[in-house]
UniProtKB/TrEMBL annotation:
HAMAP family: FBPase_class1. GO terms for molecular function: fructose 1,6-bisphosphate 1-phosphatase activity; metal ion binding. Residues 12-226 form the Fructose-1-6-bisphosphatase class I N-terminal domain. This is fructose-bisphosphatase. It comes from Cylindrotheca closterium. Residues 231-359 form the Fructose-1-6-bisphosphatase class 1 C-terminal domain. PANTHER family: FRUCTOSE-1,6-BISPHOSPHATASE-RELATED, FRUCTOSE-BISPHOSPHATASE. Pathway: Carbohydrate biosynthesis.
Length: 365
């Protein structure tokens, strides 16, 4: 144990990324991006914590509706601007897509609406997609919230041949595709989330295991706290908004009812835990084991969560930790977005329990 403690004590995110860059020169530039992510998440953590002070004016609504049809919180906008600035000034990013931006934006902040307008300078190798403040409906009550980030490489190709209904629709979709924002999760080179809770946790994968860093506020650094974390294969917790249960797909209803009654594969009666912030629910699932999901229902036939900047990056982390992530019928990581804000049904977590969902859907076919 002593060696392990020695090995991980005081390993800051900066030192971790420097070591990664030395050992993997081909991804050295990603470590530059994580310098920006490190700073941005510390700043957002500070903003979220200080938003509860009497002098703060950052709680409440911005007063407009975003492209999702949601009433934007002030902190949705503030954190979005903060992340865009932090990522843009790395000089490594060609395109950014965000939950809070109608369209993907290029380095100078132009919306990418027409394939001719895309400006990608030399050295801007990456595309970043992000949800700047996940669970923001909870932020006024001080309930945990998070940030989700996925990093793709520019690969200058757009495999999707759009049989567009009308020219206008085609241009927009083609631009998003040409801007390389419509890539499947299997193309992700890195994913991370930051959880603003009792502590501030930065959880990341570069495709070789999942690493948890905890913000040590006395030194202002993220320090490695759980190297190469693995999710328990079995579990006794499910995490869904059960208010929608009667509207879910039949297979999903059957499995959750069996988990409630203790008649599922494990024979265990499950408990329900749900805080309404995906980052918080997924983090508990990763550490304790469990199944988190937002299934399709009769009202939201594609579920609620967005594939590009919630489903895919969180699925990458879950799979790298030995878990599974499915739409019920397909591996979430293999789903190619048709457009930036596409929603996707998803169930992710402990392998054996998620496999029950996959098997139930297969049987219902
Ligand atoms: P966001 O705050 O980024 O819009 O995401 C909210 C999402 C996700 O965090 C959470 O799991 C889900 O919405 C909760 O939805 P319900 O309130 O419908 O359960
Ligand atoms: Mn939102
Ligand atoms: Mn979200
Ligand atoms: Mn959000």
């Amino acid at each position: 144990v002593f060696d392990e403690v020695c090995e991980t004590t005081g390993v800051t995110l900066t030192r971790f990324m420097n070591e990664v860059a030395i050992l993997n020169p081909e991804i050295a530039e990603i470590t530059t991006l994580f310098g920006a992510i490190d700073t941005a998440c510390k700043a957002i953590s500070n903003l979220v914590k200080r938003s509860q002070l009497p002098s703060s004016e950052t709680l409440g609504y911005q007063g407009n509706v975003n492209v999702q049809g949601e009433d934007q919180k002030k902190l949705d906008v503030i954190t979005n601007d903060l992340l865009k600035r932090a990522l843009r000034f790395t000089g490594r990013l060609g395109i950014l897509a965000s939950e809070e931006e109608d369209e993907p934006v290029d380095l100078i902040g132009n919306a990418v609406t027409d394939s001719e307008e895309i400006v990608i300078d030399e050295g801007e190798k990456y595309v970043a997609v992000f949800d700047p403040l996940d669970g923001s409906s909870n932020v006024d009550a001080g309930i945990p919230t998070g940030t989700i980030i996925g990093i793709y490489e520019h690969d200058d190709c757009c495999e999707i041949d759009y049989d567009c209904v009308d020219e206008e629709d085609c241009t927009e979709q083609e631009a998003q595709c040409l801007a390389n924002t419509l890539q499947p999760g299997t193309n992700l080179v890195a994913s991370a989330y930051c959880l603003y809770s009792s502590s501030t946790f930065l959880v990341l994968t570069l495709g070789n295991g999942v690493y948890v860093f905890t913000l040590d506020e006395t030194i202002g650094e993220f320090v490695l706290s759980k190297p190469n974390i693995k999710i328990p294969e079995d579990c006794k917790i499910y995490s869904f908004n059960e208010a929608n249960l009667e509207k879910w797909d039949e297979p999903m209803q059957k499995v959750v009812k069996r988990w409630r009654e203790g008649t599922g594969k494990s024979g265990e009666r499950f408990s329900s835990r749900y805080i309404g912030s995906m980052v918080g629910d997924v983090h508990r699932t990763l550490l304790y084991g469990g199944v988190f999901g937002y299934p399709a229902d009769t009202k939201n036939t594609n579920g609620k969560l967005r594939l590009l900047y919630e489903g895919a990056p969180m699925s990458f982390i879950m799979e790298q930790a030995g878990g599974l992530s499915t739409t019920g019928k397909r591996r979430v990581m293999e789903c190619v977005p048709e457009y930036v804000h596409q929603r996707i049904p998803l169930v992710m977590g402990s392998k054996n329990a998620v496999q029950e969902v996959i098997d139930e859907y297969a049987e219902s076919d």
